[in-house]
Amino acid sequence: MLLKLLEIIRIVSVTAVFFFGYQMDDPVAQLHLMIPIIIVAIAGISGLEGLFFAKTSAELKGFEVGSNYQRQSAIALSSYAVTAIMVYIANWGIQAELTILFVFIFFFFFSAVNHGVDAIRRKNYKWQNINRPFLTLFLIVGLIYPVIKALQSF
Description:
The protein is mostly helical. The chain has one domain. It is built from 6 helices and no strands. Helix 2 (27-52) runs antiparallel to helix 4 (68-90). The longest helix has 28 residues, at 94-121. It is globular.
């Protein structure tokens, strides 16, 4: 039940930050708000799930339980969230913010491919395997405009 609540918090947080971010006219300011919240909501919560609720999290996804790779993935996800917070607090600027965003997006793109392939190949139709490719696609599409505009500002 707690993991389902965390999934809802993830989705609602990202949806809310897109709503408020798209109210802004300046794409750099928009991304300055959106990037840390998106990364902490997705990678940070996922990292905590993998570290503290590993067994239940793996079972919900239909994956093996107790894998060292699961722990490594959780640590990597947590490091993205911590780095996004550090970049935001230190105010290192849009280039640093975009760097952590691109690292995060590449990880989640390939993770989405992995979930989709697992759903098709093993007929593992768990919620995360079905929704991950689509939610990742929506995330990328939603970020394209402000990222392109921010890159044009250099």
